[in-house]
Amino acid sequence: MKKIAYIYNINNKYSYAAKTMANGFKSAFIERKDSFRFFDITKLENSFWPDEKFKLAAYAPDIIFVSVENIPYIPLNLLKSTKIVLWGSFYSVCDYDLKIPVVTEKAKQAVKKYSKKHQMLICSVYEESINERFFSGYKKDLGLNLIHLLHCADKTKYAAPLSNPEFDFLWIGNIGQSTTAYNSFIQPLKKSLPNYLEYNEHNMISRETIESKLYYSRSFITPNIHTEIEIKNKMLLNEMVFKSSMLGGFQICDNPLAAELFPEDELIIATNGDDFLEKAHYYISNPDKRMEMIKRMQENILKNHTYANRIDQILASYS
User: Fold this and answer.
1) Buried b / exposed e along 9-44 (16+ C-beta atoms within 10 A)
2) φ, ψ (nearest 5 deg) of residue 199
3) Cα 263 from chain centroid (whole Å)
4) Could you read off the pLDDT of 105-140 as tens digits, one per residue?
5) Alpha helices, DSSP H only, in the chain?
6) Is 80 exceeded by the pLDDT of residue 14?
7) How many CB atoms lie within 10 A of CB 181?
8) CA distance 162 to 216
9) pTM of the shown model
10) What is the distance between the alpha carbons of residues 295 and 274, in angstroms, rounded to a whole number?
C-alpha cells in the first residue's frame, strides 16, 4: 500500500477542474487500496500555519502530487526520498498567449535543490508539440522527465444515458475564457432550444450538485467548447471531453483534436455555429443513434481514459 499526498487549494471555488482532478485521483488510488490524503497549499505556504507542514511530514507520503509552482512550500527537507508528481507550468514564454504563466525562478531553484533527493516527474495536459516547444526546458535545464498526461474521467462517476432526457442541452463553462466560442455555439443553441441548463461564472453551481442531479444524462446535448487559441494551436482537450460522456451526456465538441482519440461513431465534432446547431437538432430527433454513440464512447473511456490509466502511466514513468 502506497501513501499518497495530493496538494492543492482545497477551498478555491473557482477551480472546478482542479477539484474534479483531485477527487478523480482520490477515487482511483483508493480503489487500488492505497492511502490518500488531501493537504491545503494555502496552509503550507503560510509561515504562520506550521501544523500543515508537520502533518504532511508525519504522514510521510510515498508520492506527492503538487503544482511545480508550489514545490518551494513543501517540507521536503523533513521527508525521506519521496516521488513527486509535478503539474507543470510552461517553462518557456508562450508567444501566442502571453497570459499563460511561466514557471518562476523560485520554483526552478527549489526543483534543483530537492530533485537530487526526491525523484520528480513533470506532467503536462498539453499536446506533444506544445510540450516540445514550451516544456522541454524541464529536461534540458533541470534534468526532469516530462510525460503527456491527458485529462480523463473518474469511472466511479458514471451515469447511464437516457433515451428521452428532459432538457434540450446543458452547458457548463466560463464565458470569459471562451467568449468567441460561446457566442458562436452556445448563444444560437439558447435561441433555438429554449429548454436548457446553463451554469457559468455568473451563476456557479457545485460539482457535487451537477453530478447528484444527473444533469448530464438528463440533457439531450452537452456542448463542449474550447478557446480559439486552444483550437488554433492544437493545445489540449479539456476534461469535459471525457467527463461529460462518462456521466451520460451526449457531446458535440468544437475541437478537432478529439478526433485523434474518439472516432466519429463515438463523438460528434462541429467546427462552426451552423453545423453545431444542425447536429444538435439532428441527434435530438434521432435519440437511438445518440444512445449508441454515448455507450461506445463510455466503453472507450473506461478502457483507455480513466484516472486508473493515468496512475499506471505515472508509475511506469518512475520504474
Assistant:
1) bbeeeeebeebbbbbbbbbbbeeeebebeebbbebb
2) -130, 120
3) 21
4) 999 999 999 999 999 999 999 999 999 999 999 999
5) 16-31, 41-44, 51-59, 105-114, 128-134, 137-142, 179-181, 187-192, 207-212, 228-232, 240-246, 273-285, 287-304, 307-318
6) no
7) 23
8) 10
9) 0.94
10) 26
